[in-house]
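Example record used in the benchmark description.
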Amino acid sequence: MIAYVYAADRKAERPEAHLGIFAGILQVDGYGGYAALARRRQQVQLAFCWVHVRRKFYELAESSPVATEVLRRIALLYAIDDEVRGTSAEQRRATGADQSRVIVDDLHHYLDARNRQVSAKSKLGEAIRYALTRWEGLSRFIDDGRIDLDSNTVERSIRPPALNRKNDLFAGSDEGGDNWAVIATLIECCKLNAVNPHQWLTDTLSRLANGHPANSVADLMPWMALT
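Model output (structure tokens):
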């Protein structure tokens, strides 16, 4: 499923409150609030996104041989990922671990060396530091086949609401924001489960209006339409 949660701001305590007592691996982008969360709660391990790393070097590739070389090496990781995608977590780890580890370790040495040669204030320096400061989380996929190289699945699910954000400014209040998040959650869950959102909403609202038991609302969720 997909879940959207409204927050009034981007403070670090927002994801912490949302996650509650969650313990495990959290695959995230580079938002600093996640790093702060992991520092405070040892039971949360971060897995960072290689697409966000690649994006910073892609913007520099036309003028920087270093950025071009980094992109070439990241492409090697994705070539391995293409071979194991769709297999079990254990197969992904067993097949890709040795090959990926060599590439990741070599890339770390390469970036560390370039980091000492370029200006810290340059765009290239910023891109290198972005990667190096997140290296543990970027490398976590090597030893855990459950972890993807990137958070593209989440990025794709965020894109429709992000494009529609200006149309939702009428929410006007925290309560309106919460309601918007609920609607976005239901619609995107329908899409994820190949269920027509309009048909599902029509059927579900009709059932609720006709007295569907409140203690059985879970039976109406989009994935139940597939059973």
